[in-house]
Amino acid sequence: MPNEFDFIHWLRSQQRPSPLVPLPAGDDLAILRWPANDLLLAGVDQVLDGIHFDSAHHTPRQIGVKVMNRNLSDCAAMACLPAAALIAVVLPKGASIDFTKDLYLDIKSTADEFNCQIIGGDTASWPNKLALSVTILARSAGLTPITRSGAKPGDHLYVTGPLGGSILGRHMTFTPRIHLARDLASHHRITAMLDLSDGLSRDLTHICHQSHVAAHLDAPSIPIHKDAIELSRRDGLSPLHHALHDGEDHELLFTSPDLITAPSITQIGQIVPGQGIHIGTPNSFTPLKPQGWEHAL
Amino acid sequence: MPNEFDFIHWLRSQQRPSPLVPLPAGDDLAILRWPANDLLLAGVDQVLDGIHFDSAHHTPRQIGVKVMNRNLSDCAAMACLPAAALIAVVLPKGASIDFTKDLYLDIKSTADEFNCQIIGGDTASWPNKLALSVTILARSAGLTPITRSGAKPGDHLYVTGPLGGSILGRHMTFTPRIHLARDLASHHRITAMLDLSDGLSRDLTHICHQSHVAAHLDAPSIPIHKDAIELSRRDGLSPLHHALHDGEDHELLFTSPDLITAPSITQIGQIVPGQGIHIGTPNSFTPLKPQGWEHAL
Hints:
Two copies of one chain form a homodimer. Chain A is an alpha+beta fold. Chain A contains eight helices and twelve strands. Chain A has helices at 4-13, 60-78, 97-112, 170-173, 178-187, 200-211, 226-235, 239-245, and strands spanning 30-32, 40-48, 81-92, 117-126, 131-139, 156-159, 192-195, 214-218, 252-256, 266-272, 277-281, 284-288. In chain A, the strands form two sheets. In chain A, strands 7-9-6-10-8-11-12 form a seven-stranded mixed β-sheet. A four-stranded mixed β-sheet of chain A has the order 2-5-3-4. The interface between A and B is large, with 74 and 75 residues. Strand 1 (30-32) of chain A pairs antiparallel with strand 2 of chain B.
Protein backbone atom coordinates (compact mmCIF):
# COMPACT_ATOMS: atom_id res chain seq x y z
CA MET A 1 0.00 0.00 0.00
CA PRO A 2 1.53 3.37 -0.95
CA ASN A 3 2.33 5.66 1.94
CA GLU A 4 1.31 9.30 2.33
CA PHE A 5 4.54 10.54 0.78
CA ASP A 6 3.94 8.66 -2.46
CA PHE A 7 0.33 9.78 -2.51
CA ILE A 8 1.21 13.47 -2.18
CA HIS A 9 3.83 13.02 -4.91
CA TRP A 10 1.12 11.54 -7.13
CA LEU A 11 -1.32 14.32 -6.23
CA ARG A 12 1.30 16.94 -7.04
CA SER A 13 1.95 15.32 -10.42
CA GLN A 14 -1.74 15.85 -11.28
CA GLN A 15 -1.56 19.64 -10.94
CA ARG A 16 -0.83 22.03 -13.78
CA PRO A 17 1.87 24.64 -13.01
CA SER A 18 0.45 28.04 -12.06
CA PRO A 19 2.13 31.43 -11.52
CA LEU A 20 -0.08 31.73 -8.40
CA VAL A 21 1.62 28.67 -6.85
CA PRO A 22 5.45 28.81 -6.96
CA LEU A 23 5.58 25.75 -4.62
CA PRO A 24 2.68 23.27 -4.70
CA ALA A 25 1.80 20.53 -2.16
CA GLY A 26 4.68 18.27 -1.10
CA ASP A 27 6.68 20.43 1.31
CA ASP A 28 5.67 21.38 4.86
CA LEU A 29 3.45 24.11 3.39
CA ALA A 30 2.61 25.19 -0.16
CA ILE A 31 3.66 28.70 -1.26
CA LEU A 32 1.36 31.12 -3.10
CA ARG A 33 2.15 34.51 -4.57
CA TRP A 34 -1.09 36.32 -3.75
CA PRO A 35 -2.07 38.98 -6.34
CA ALA A 36 -1.41 42.40 -4.78
CA ASN A 37 -4.78 43.88 -5.74
CA ASP A 38 -6.84 40.93 -4.59
CA LEU A 39 -8.52 40.48 -1.25
CA LEU A 40 -8.11 36.91 0.01
CA LEU A 41 -11.34 35.13 0.94
CA ALA A 42 -11.20 31.90 2.90
CA GLY A 43 -13.55 29.33 4.37
CA VAL A 44 -13.75 25.67 5.36
CA ASP A 45 -16.56 23.20 4.83
CA GLN A 46 -16.77 19.47 5.48
CA VAL A 47 -18.91 16.51 4.45
CA LEU A 48 -19.42 13.34 6.49
CA ASP A 49 -20.52 9.85 5.55
CA GLY A 50 -24.03 9.25 6.83
CA ILE A 51 -24.74 12.97 7.25
CA HIS A 52 -24.00 14.75 3.96
CA PHE A 53 -23.67 11.68 1.74
CA ASP A 54 -24.00 7.91 2.00
CA SER A 55 -20.92 5.99 0.91
CA ALA A 56 -23.10 2.89 0.43
CA HIS A 57 -24.99 4.70 -2.34
CA HIS A 58 -22.80 7.54 -3.62
CA THR A 59 -19.69 7.05 -5.75
CA PRO A 60 -16.31 8.70 -4.97
CA ARG A 61 -17.04 10.94 -7.96
CA GLN A 62 -20.31 12.17 -6.42
CA ILE A 63 -18.76 12.67 -2.97
CA GLY A 64 -15.72 14.53 -4.34
CA VAL A 65 -17.88 16.74 -6.53
CA LYS A 66 -20.19 17.60 -3.64
CA VAL A 67 -17.53 18.67 -1.14
CA MET A 68 -15.75 20.81 -3.73
CA ASN A 69 -18.96 22.35 -5.04
CA ARG A 70 -20.11 23.31 -1.54
CA ASN A 71 -16.95 25.39 -1.22
CA LEU A 72 -17.21 26.79 -4.74
CA SER A 73 -20.78 27.79 -3.92
CA ASP A 74 -19.44 29.82 -0.98
CA CYS A 75 -17.27 31.66 -3.49
CA ALA A 76 -20.35 32.38 -5.60
CA ALA A 77 -22.08 33.72 -2.47
CA MET A 78 -19.34 36.37 -2.10
CA ALA A 79 -19.00 36.98 -5.89
CA CYS A 80 -15.32 36.03 -5.77
CA LEU A 81 -13.21 33.61 -7.83
CA PRO A 82 -11.84 30.37 -6.36
CA ALA A 83 -8.04 30.23 -6.51
CA ALA A 84 -6.78 27.34 -4.38
CA ALA A 85 -8.06 24.55 -2.15
CA LEU A 86 -6.67 22.29 0.58
CA ILE A 87 -8.25 18.90 1.20
CA ALA A 88 -8.22 16.81 4.38
CA VAL A 89 -9.51 13.28 3.93
CA VAL A 90 -10.10 10.69 6.64
CA LEU A 91 -10.49 7.29 5.00
CA PRO A 92 -12.12 4.26 6.54
CA LYS A 93 -9.45 1.61 7.24
CA GLY A 94 -9.06 -0.59 4.19
CA ALA A 95 -10.23 2.00 1.63
CA SER A 96 -8.49 1.19 -1.64
CA ILE A 97 -5.96 3.44 -3.30
CA ASP A 98 -8.26 3.52 -6.34
CA PHE A 99 -11.13 4.84 -4.23
CA THR A 100 -8.85 7.54 -2.82
CA LYS A 101 -7.49 8.51 -6.24
CA ASP A 102 -11.03 8.69 -7.65
CA LEU A 103 -12.06 10.94 -4.78
CA TYR A 104 -9.11 13.31 -5.29
CA LEU A 105 -9.37 13.29 -9.09
CA ASP A 106 -13.05 14.18 -8.94
CA ILE A 107 -12.38 16.93 -6.41
CA LYS A 108 -9.63 18.15 -8.73
CA SER A 109 -11.65 18.05 -11.95
CA THR A 110 -14.44 19.99 -10.20
CA ALA A 111 -11.88 22.56 -9.01
CA ASP A 112 -10.30 22.70 -12.49
CA GLU A 113 -13.54 23.99 -13.99
CA PHE A 114 -12.88 27.20 -12.07
CA ASN A 115 -9.10 27.20 -12.41
CA CYS A 116 -8.78 26.39 -8.71
CA GLN A 117 -5.48 24.70 -7.71
CA ILE A 118 -5.31 21.92 -5.12
CA ILE A 119 -2.35 23.12 -3.02
CA GLY A 120 -2.53 20.91 0.04
CA GLY A 121 -3.75 17.54 1.12
CA ASP A 122 -3.71 15.52 4.30
CA THR A 123 -4.78 11.89 4.18
CA ALA A 124 -5.24 9.68 7.22
CA SER A 125 -7.21 6.51 7.89
CA TRP A 126 -9.11 5.17 10.87
CA PRO A 127 -11.56 2.40 11.74
CA ASN A 128 -14.49 4.81 11.31
CA LYS A 129 -16.36 6.48 8.46
CA LEU A 130 -15.20 8.68 5.59
CA ALA A 131 -14.93 12.42 6.33
CA LEU A 132 -13.66 15.20 4.05
CA SER A 133 -12.97 18.85 4.70
CA VAL A 134 -12.06 21.42 2.06
CA THR A 135 -10.58 24.86 2.71
CA ILE A 136 -11.09 27.28 -0.17
CA LEU A 137 -8.97 30.37 -0.89
CA ALA A 138 -10.57 32.85 -3.30
CA ARG A 139 -9.71 36.17 -4.99
CA SER A 140 -11.87 39.29 -5.09
CA ALA A 141 -10.64 39.66 -8.71
CA GLY A 142 -11.87 43.17 -9.41
CA LEU A 143 -15.20 43.02 -7.58
CA THR A 144 -15.99 44.04 -4.01
CA PRO A 145 -16.98 40.85 -2.13
CA ILE A 146 -20.67 40.75 -1.24
CA THR A 147 -21.44 40.02 2.39
CA ARG A 148 -24.69 39.17 4.18
CA SER A 149 -24.85 42.47 6.00
CA GLY A 150 -25.61 45.13 3.38
CA ALA A 151 -29.36 44.64 2.73
CA LYS A 152 -31.39 47.87 3.07
CA PRO A 153 -35.14 48.49 3.47
CA GLY A 154 -36.58 48.95 -0.01
CA ASP A 155 -34.21 46.41 -1.61
CA HIS A 156 -35.74 43.69 -3.71
CA LEU A 157 -35.13 40.06 -2.76
CA TYR A 158 -34.10 37.64 -5.50
CA VAL A 159 -33.31 33.97 -5.95
CA THR A 160 -31.44 32.33 -8.85
CA GLY A 161 -33.50 29.16 -9.30
CA PRO A 162 -36.35 26.95 -8.13
CA LEU A 163 -36.17 25.61 -4.58
CA GLY A 164 -37.00 22.54 -2.52
CA GLY A 165 -36.61 18.78 -2.60
CA SER A 166 -32.83 18.74 -3.18
CA ILE A 167 -32.64 15.58 -1.06
CA LEU A 168 -34.01 13.67 -4.05
CA GLY A 169 -30.56 14.06 -5.62
CA ARG A 170 -29.72 17.69 -6.43
CA HIS A 171 -27.86 18.10 -3.10
CA MET A 172 -25.12 15.97 -4.71
CA THR A 173 -25.17 17.51 -8.20
CA PHE A 174 -25.90 21.25 -7.93
CA THR A 175 -23.95 23.82 -9.94
CA PRO A 176 -22.09 26.56 -8.03
CA ARG A 177 -23.42 29.88 -9.39
CA ILE A 178 -20.02 31.55 -9.69
CA HIS A 179 -20.37 32.91 -13.23
CA LEU A 180 -23.87 34.19 -12.50
CA ALA A 181 -22.73 35.84 -9.23
CA ARG A 182 -19.82 37.59 -10.97
CA ASP A 183 -22.15 38.73 -13.74
CA LEU A 184 -24.73 40.05 -11.25
CA ALA A 185 -22.10 41.86 -9.16
CA SER A 186 -20.56 43.38 -12.31
CA HIS A 187 -23.80 44.88 -13.60
CA HIS A 188 -25.95 45.61 -10.54
CA ARG A 189 -25.78 46.97 -7.02
CA ILE A 190 -25.96 43.73 -5.02
CA THR A 191 -26.28 44.68 -1.34
CA ALA A 192 -26.31 41.22 0.32
CA MET A 193 -25.90 37.67 -0.93
CA LEU A 194 -25.47 34.08 0.26
CA ASP A 195 -25.93 30.60 -1.14
CA LEU A 196 -28.95 28.65 0.08
CA SER A 197 -27.48 25.79 2.06
CA ASP A 198 -29.67 25.73 5.18
CA GLY A 199 -33.00 26.49 3.49
CA LEU A 200 -34.63 29.76 2.40
CA SER A 201 -36.32 30.52 5.74
CA ARG A 202 -33.12 29.99 7.74
CA ASP A 203 -30.72 31.62 5.29
CA LEU A 204 -32.94 34.67 4.80
CA THR A 205 -32.90 34.99 8.59
CA HIS A 206 -29.09 35.20 8.38
CA ILE A 207 -29.33 38.13 5.94
CA CYS A 208 -31.98 39.83 8.10
CA HIS A 209 -29.98 39.41 11.32
CA GLN A 210 -26.68 40.47 9.81
CA SER A 211 -28.21 43.44 7.91
CA HIS A 212 -30.53 44.49 10.79
CA VAL A 213 -33.57 44.40 8.53
CA ALA A 214 -36.75 42.35 8.02
CA ALA A 215 -38.13 40.67 4.90
CA HIS A 216 -41.49 40.15 3.25
CA LEU A 217 -41.71 37.03 1.10
CA ASP A 218 -44.27 37.00 -1.69
CA ALA A 219 -45.49 33.39 -1.48
CA PRO A 220 -46.87 33.06 -5.03
CA SER A 221 -43.56 34.28 -6.49
CA ILE A 222 -41.30 31.70 -4.84
CA PRO A 223 -40.10 29.33 -7.58
CA ILE A 224 -40.88 25.74 -6.63
CA HIS A 225 -38.62 22.98 -7.92
CA LYS A 226 -40.32 19.92 -9.40
CA ASP A 227 -38.43 17.88 -6.78
CA ALA A 228 -40.37 19.79 -4.10
CA ILE A 229 -43.63 18.77 -5.80
CA GLU A 230 -42.48 15.15 -6.01
CA LEU A 231 -41.44 15.16 -2.34
CA SER A 232 -44.75 16.76 -1.41
CA ARG A 233 -46.59 13.81 -3.00
CA ARG A 234 -44.60 11.46 -0.80
CA ASP A 235 -44.73 13.21 2.56
CA GLY A 236 -47.90 15.33 2.42
CA LEU A 237 -46.09 18.58 3.22
CA SER A 238 -46.83 21.35 0.71
CA PRO A 239 -44.42 22.08 -2.15
CA LEU A 240 -44.10 25.61 -0.72
CA HIS A 241 -43.07 24.16 2.65
CA HIS A 242 -40.25 22.29 0.92
CA ALA A 243 -39.19 25.38 -1.05
CA LEU A 244 -39.10 27.44 2.16
CA HIS A 245 -37.39 25.01 4.48
CA ASP A 246 -35.40 22.34 2.62
CA GLY A 247 -31.62 22.73 2.69
CA GLU A 248 -28.85 22.35 0.12
CA ASP A 249 -30.44 24.11 -2.86
CA HIS A 250 -27.22 26.11 -3.35
CA GLU A 251 -29.02 28.75 -5.39
CA LEU A 252 -28.08 32.35 -4.58
CA LEU A 253 -30.34 34.51 -2.43
CA PHE A 254 -29.56 38.21 -2.85
CA THR A 255 -30.85 41.74 -2.38
CA SER A 256 -30.58 44.77 -4.65
CA PRO A 257 -32.19 48.19 -5.03
CA ASP A 258 -32.15 47.48 -8.80
CA LEU A 259 -34.98 45.90 -10.73
CA ILE A 260 -33.24 42.89 -12.23
CA THR A 261 -34.84 40.83 -14.96
CA ALA A 262 -33.05 37.78 -16.31
CA PRO A 263 -34.23 34.31 -17.28
CA SER A 264 -32.91 32.57 -14.17
CA ILE A 265 -33.63 35.35 -11.63
CA THR A 266 -36.92 35.57 -9.71
CA GLN A 267 -37.95 38.36 -7.38
CA ILE A 268 -39.50 36.73 -4.32
CA GLY A 269 -39.97 39.60 -1.91
CA GLN A 270 -38.82 42.83 -0.39
CA ILE A 271 -36.52 44.02 2.37
CA VAL A 272 -38.35 46.15 4.97
CA PRO A 273 -37.42 47.81 8.27
CA GLY A 274 -37.75 45.78 11.45
CA GLN A 275 -37.03 42.20 12.42
CA GLY A 276 -38.06 38.75 11.20
CA ILE A 277 -39.65 37.35 8.06
CA HIS A 278 -43.28 37.58 6.97
CA ILE A 279 -44.81 35.63 4.12
CA GLY A 280 -48.03 36.07 2.15
CA THR A 281 -49.43 38.09 -0.71
CA PRO A 282 -48.73 41.82 -1.04
CA ASN A 283 -51.83 42.60 1.10
CA SER A 284 -51.69 39.91 3.79
CA PHE A 285 -48.53 38.75 5.59
CA THR A 286 -48.03 36.28 8.43
CA PRO A 287 -44.81 35.65 10.39
CA LEU A 288 -42.59 32.84 9.10
CA LYS A 289 -40.53 30.90 11.62
CA PRO A 290 -37.15 29.73 10.29
CA GLN A 291 -36.98 25.96 9.97
CA GLY A 292 -34.88 23.76 7.78
CA TRP A 293 -31.45 22.35 8.18
CA GLU A 294 -30.05 23.22 11.57
CA HIS A 295 -26.46 22.20 12.23
CA ALA A 296 -27.21 21.29 15.84
CA LEU A 297 -24.15 20.56 17.97
CA MET B 1 -28.61 23.15 22.27
CA PRO B 2 -27.17 26.16 20.40
CA ASN B 3 -27.08 25.83 16.64
CA GLU B 4 -24.10 26.43 14.38
CA PHE B 5 -25.08 30.04 13.76
CA ASP B 6 -24.96 30.89 17.44
CA PHE B 7 -21.70 29.02 17.83
CA ILE B 8 -19.98 30.92 15.02
CA HIS B 9 -21.31 34.16 16.52
CA TRP B 10 -19.74 33.15 19.84
CA LEU B 11 -16.50 32.14 18.13
CA ARG B 12 -16.37 35.48 16.31
CA SER B 13 -16.89 37.34 19.58
CA GLN B 14 -13.73 35.70 20.95
CA GLN B 15 -11.46 37.17 18.25
CA ARG B 16 -9.58 40.43 18.57
CA PRO B 17 -9.99 42.81 15.60
CA SER B 18 -7.05 42.71 13.18
CA PRO B 19 -6.15 44.88 10.17
CA LEU B 20 -5.33 41.61 8.38
CA VAL B 21 -8.96 40.46 8.68
CA PRO B 22 -11.51 43.10 7.57
CA LEU B 23 -14.29 40.43 7.76
CA PRO B 24 -13.86 37.54 10.23
CA ALA B 25 -15.80 34.23 10.37
CA GLY B 26 -19.60 34.51 10.19
CA ASP B 27 -20.27 35.19 6.52
CA ASP B 28 -19.98 32.69 3.65
CA LEU B 29 -16.21 33.32 3.65
CA ALA B 30 -13.88 35.45 5.77
CA ILE B 31 -11.99 38.28 4.06
CA LEU B 32 -8.27 38.95 4.52
CA ARG B 33 -6.16 41.81 3.22
CA TRP B 34 -2.96 39.91 2.43
CA PRO B 35 0.22 42.02 2.92
CA ALA B 36 1.54 42.90 -0.56
CA ASN B 37 5.14 41.92 0.18
CA ASP B 38 4.31 38.59 1.81
CA LEU B 39 4.23 35.23 0.18
CA LEU B 40 1.22 33.20 1.39
CA LEU B 41 2.05 29.76 2.78
CA ALA B 42 -0.75 27.27 3.35
CA GLY B 43 -1.22 23.72 4.59
CA VAL B 44 -3.76 21.45 6.25
CA ASP B 45 -3.26 18.91 9.00
CA GLN B 46 -5.75 16.79 10.93
CA VAL B 47 -5.91 14.81 14.17
CA LEU B 48 -8.21 11.86 14.84
CA ASP B 49 -9.47 10.28 18.03
CA GLY B 50 -7.78 6.92 18.51
CA ILE B 51 -4.96 7.74 16.07
CA HIS B 52 -3.36 11.05 17.10
CA PHE B 53 -4.95 11.37 20.54
CA ASP B 54 -7.27 9.42 22.82
CA SER B 55 -10.37 11.31 23.93
CA ALA B 56 -10.72 8.89 26.85
CA HIS B 57 -7.42 10.16 28.27
CA HIS B 58 -6.72 13.58 26.76
CA THR B 59 -8.58 16.75 27.71
CA PRO B 60 -10.10 19.15 25.14
CA ARG B 61 -7.25 21.50 26.09
CA GLN B 62 -4.61 18.90 25.15
CA ILE B 63 -6.37 17.98 21.90
CA GLY B 64 -6.88 21.59 20.83
CA VAL B 65 -3.29 22.49 21.64
CA LYS B 66 -1.94 19.51 19.69
CA VAL B 67 -3.84 20.12 16.45
CA MET B 68 -2.93 23.81 16.45
CA ASN B 69 0.72 23.18 17.35
CA ARG B 70 1.12 20.63 14.55
CA ASN B 71 0.17 23.37 12.09
CA LEU B 72 2.32 25.99 13.84
CA SER B 73 5.23 23.55 13.65
CA ASP B 74 4.75 23.42 9.86
CA CYS B 75 5.18 27.21 9.88
CA ALA B 76 8.42 26.81 11.84
CA ALA B 77 9.59 24.28 9.25
CA MET B 78 9.32 26.94 6.52
CA ALA B 79 10.57 29.80 8.76
CA CYS B 80 7.34 31.74 8.21
CA LEU B 81 4.91 33.41 10.60
CA PRO B 82 1.39 32.03 11.18
CA ALA B 83 -1.31 34.56 10.27
CA ALA B 84 -4.70 32.84 10.20
CA ALA B 85 -6.28 29.43 10.71
CA LEU B 86 -9.51 27.68 9.76
CA ILE B 87 -10.83 24.83 11.91
CA ALA B 88 -13.15 21.98 10.92
CA VAL B 89 -14.43 19.95 13.85
CA VAL B 90 -16.50 16.77 13.70
CA LEU B 91 -17.97 16.11 17.13
CA PRO B 92 -19.27 12.81 18.39
CA LYS B 93 -23.07 13.00 18.79
CA GLY B 94 -23.88 14.26 22.27
CA ALA B 95 -20.64 16.20 22.82
CA SER B 96 -21.45 19.05 25.18
CA ILE B 97 -21.27 22.70 24.23
CA ASP B 98 -18.72 23.14 27.04
CA PHE B 99 -16.46 20.49 25.52
CA THR B 100 -16.69 22.23 22.16
CA LYS B 101 -16.02 25.67 23.62
CA ASP B 102 -13.02 24.32 25.54
CA LEU B 103 -11.67 22.77 22.35
CA TYR B 104 -12.01 26.01 20.37
CA LEU B 105 -10.73 28.22 23.20
CA ASP B 106 -7.62 26.11 23.58
CA ILE B 107 -7.02 26.10 19.83
CA LYS B 108 -7.49 29.86 19.94
CA SER B 109 -5.20 30.52 22.91
CA THR B 110 -2.49 28.42 21.23
CA ALA B 111 -2.94 30.42 18.03
CA ASP B 112 -2.94 33.69 19.97
CA GLU B 113 0.60 33.06 21.19
CA PHE B 114 1.71 33.61 17.60
CA ASN B 115 -0.83 36.32 16.76
CA CYS B 116 -2.67 33.86 14.50
CA GLN B 117 -6.37 34.69 13.87
CA ILE B 118 -9.08 32.01 13.71
CA ILE B 119 -10.95 33.13 10.58
CA GLY B 120 -13.17 30.16 9.82
CA GLY B 121 -14.84 27.26 11.52
CA ASP B 122 -17.12 24.45 10.49
CA THR B 123 -18.71 22.30 13.16
CA ALA B 124 -20.72 19.15 12.51
CA SER B 125 -21.62 16.13 14.58
CA TRP B 126 -22.05 12.45 13.82
CA PRO B 127 -22.40 9.12 15.66
CA ASN B 128 -18.64 8.49 15.30
CA LYS B 129 -15.43 9.75 16.85
CA LEU B 130 -13.95 13.24 17.20
CA ALA B 131 -11.91 14.52 14.24
CA LEU B 132 -10.31 17.95 13.77
CA SER B 133 -8.58 19.53 10.80
CA VAL B 134 -6.78 22.85 10.81
CA THR B 135 -5.74 24.86 7.76
CA ILE B 136 -2.96 27.33 8.44
CA LEU B 137 -2.20 30.47 6.41
CA ALA B 138 1.23 31.98 7.05
CA ARG B 139 3.31 34.97 5.93
CA SER B 140 6.88 34.93 4.66
CA ALA B 141 7.32 38.17 6.69
CA GLY B 142 10.69 39.27 5.35
CA LEU B 143 12.39 35.88 5.07
CA THR B 144 12.55 33.54 2.08
CA PRO B 145 10.62 30.38 3.03
CA ILE B 146 12.85 27.36 3.52
CA THR B 147 11.85 24.25 1.59
CA ARG B 148 13.05 20.65 1.78
CA SER B 149 14.79 20.77 -1.58
CA GLY B 150 17.83 23.02 -1.13
CA ALA B 151 20.30 20.78 0.74
CA LYS B 152 23.73 20.57 -0.94
CA PRO B 153 26.66 18.12 -0.54
CA GLY B 154 28.95 19.58 2.10
CA ASP B 155 26.11 21.06 4.15
CA HIS B 156 26.02 20.25 7.84
CA LEU B 157 22.94 18.54 9.25
CA TYR B 158 21.43 19.92 12.46
CA VAL B 159 18.60 19.19 14.86
CA THR B 160 17.06 21.57 17.44
CA GLY B 161 16.56 19.18 20.36
CA PRO B 162 16.76 15.64 21.75
CA LEU B 163 14.72 12.97 19.97
CA GLY B 164 12.68 9.84 20.67
CA GLY B 165 9.97 8.58 23.00
CA SER B 166 7.49 11.40 22.33
CA ILE B 167 4.66 8.87 22.72
CA LEU B 168 5.23 9.07 26.50
CA GLY B 169 3.55 12.48 26.37
CA ARG B 170 5.56 15.04 24.42
CA HIS B 171 3.58 14.35 21.23
CA MET B 172 0.73 16.26 22.90
CA THR B 173 2.78 19.07 24.46
CA PHE B 174 5.67 19.98 22.13
CA THR B 175 6.58 23.61 21.40
CA PRO B 176 6.52 24.77 17.76
CA ARG B 177 10.02 26.15 17.04
CA ILE B 178 8.82 29.26 15.20
CA HIS B 179 11.00 31.82 17.00
CA LEU B 180 14.08 29.60 16.67
CA ALA B 181 13.39 28.98 12.97
CA ARG B 182 13.04 32.70 12.27
CA ASP B 183 16.20 33.39 14.22
CA LEU B 184 18.16 30.70 12.35
CA ALA B 185 16.90 31.87 8.95
CA SER B 186 17.74 35.47 9.81
CA HIS B 187 21.36 34.79 10.74
CA HIS B 188 22.45 31.75 8.70
CA ARG B 189 22.20 30.22 5.24
CA ILE B 190 19.60 27.49 5.91
CA THR B 191 19.38 25.36 2.75
CA ALA B 192 16.65 22.87 3.73
CA MET B 193 14.40 22.43 6.75
CA LEU B 194 11.39 20.46 8.03
CA ASP B 195 9.85 19.60 11.36
CA LEU B 196 10.33 16.04 12.59
CA SER B 197 6.84 14.56 12.56
CA ASP B 198 7.42 11.14 10.99
CA GLY B 199 10.74 10.33 12.69
CA LEU B 200 14.34 11.32 11.89
CA SER B 201 15.04 8.44 9.49
CA ARG B 202 11.88 9.03 7.45
CA ASP B 203 11.98 12.83 7.49
CA LEU B 204 15.67 12.96 6.58
CA THR B 205 14.74 10.74 3.62
CA HIS B 206 12.27 13.46 2.54
CA ILE B 207 15.08 16.05 2.52
CA CYS B 208 17.44 13.67 0.67
CA HIS B 209 14.80 12.77 -1.97
CA GLN B 210 13.64 16.33 -2.52
CA SER B 211 17.20 17.76 -2.56
CA HIS B 212 18.66 14.86 -4.62
CA VAL B 213 21.40 14.26 -2.06
CA ALA B 214 22.42 11.64 0.51
CA ALA B 215 23.17 12.00 4.22
CA HIS B 216 25.67 10.60 6.72
CA LEU B 217 24.40 10.50 10.30
CA ASP B 218 26.99 10.58 13.08
CA ALA B 219 25.41 8.15 15.55
CA PRO B 220 27.18 9.35 18.73
CA SER B 221 26.09 12.95 18.04
CA ILE B 222 22.36 12.31 17.82
CA PRO B 223 20.78 13.83 20.95
CA ILE B 224 18.68 11.24 22.75
CA HIS B 225 15.68 12.37 24.77
CA LYS B 226 15.28 10.90 28.27
CA ASP B 227 11.88 9.63 27.11
CA ALA B 228 13.69 7.48 24.53
CA ILE B 229 15.80 6.01 27.33
CA GLU B 230 12.69 5.38 29.45
CA LEU B 231 10.90 3.74 26.50
CA SER B 232 13.99 1.65 25.80
CA ARG B 233 13.80 0.24 29.33
CA ARG B 234 10.23 -0.84 28.64
CA ASP B 235 10.50 -2.32 25.15
CA GLY B 236 14.14 -3.40 24.84
CA LEU B 237 14.76 -1.37 21.66
CA SER B 238 17.82 0.88 21.95
CA PRO B 239 17.45 4.56 22.85
CA LEU B 240 19.12 5.35 19.49
CA HIS B 241 16.48 3.28 17.69
CA HIS B 242 13.79 5.45 19.29
CA ALA B 243 15.65 8.67 18.47
CA LEU B 244 16.00 7.57 14.82
CA HIS B 245 12.53 6.21 14.18
CA ASP B 246 9.94 7.57 16.64
CA GLY B 247 7.52 10.16 15.26
CA GLU B 248 6.10 13.44 16.52
CA ASP B 249 9.23 15.01 18.02
CA HIS B 250 8.45 18.26 16.17
CA GLU B 251 12.02 19.47 16.51
CA LEU B 252 13.49 21.08 13.38
CA LEU B 253 15.85 19.15 11.12
CA PHE B 254 17.85 21.47 8.86
CA THR B 255 20.94 21.80 6.67
CA SER B 256 23.38 24.66 6.33
CA PRO B 257 26.86 25.28 4.92
CA ASP B 258 27.48 27.39 8.06
CA LEU B 259 28.99 26.08 11.28
CA ILE B 260 26.22 26.90 13.76
CA THR B 261 26.79 26.73 17.49
CA ALA B 262 23.93 27.47 19.86
CA PRO B 263 22.76 25.86 23.10
CA SER B 264 19.79 24.03 21.56
CA ILE B 265 21.38 23.13 18.20
CA THR B 266 23.25 19.87 17.61
CA GLN B 267 25.13 18.89 14.47
CA ILE B 268 24.25 15.25 13.75
CA GLY B 269 25.76 14.64 10.34
CA GLN B 270 26.62 15.77 6.87
CA ILE B 271 24.99 16.03 3.47
CA VAL B 272 26.91 14.10 0.79
CA PRO B 273 26.39 13.33 -2.92
CA GLY B 274 24.37 10.25 -3.82
CA GLN B 275 21.24 8.61 -2.47
CA GLY B 276 20.06 7.27 0.87
CA ILE B 277 21.16 7.63 4.48
CA HIS B 278 24.15 6.02 6.18
CA ILE B 279 24.76 6.00 9.91
CA GLY B 280 27.86 5.32 11.98
CA THR B 281 30.97 7.02 13.20
CA PRO B 282 33.07 9.25 10.90
CA ASN B 283 35.09 6.21 9.77
CA SER B 284 32.45 3.47 9.49
CA PHE B 285 28.98 3.93 8.01
CA THR B 286 26.19 1.44 7.34
CA PRO B 287 22.97 2.04 5.40
CA LEU B 288 19.94 3.15 7.43
CA LYS B 289 16.49 2.09 6.24
CA PRO B 290 13.77 4.66 6.96
CA GLN B 291 11.29 3.40 9.53
CA GLY B 292 9.02 5.24 11.88
CA TRP B 293 5.58 6.65 11.50
CA GLU B 294 4.19 5.77 8.10
CA HIS B 295 0.82 7.30 7.25
CA ALA B 296 -0.33 4.16 5.41
CA LEU B 297 -3.57 4.52 3.49
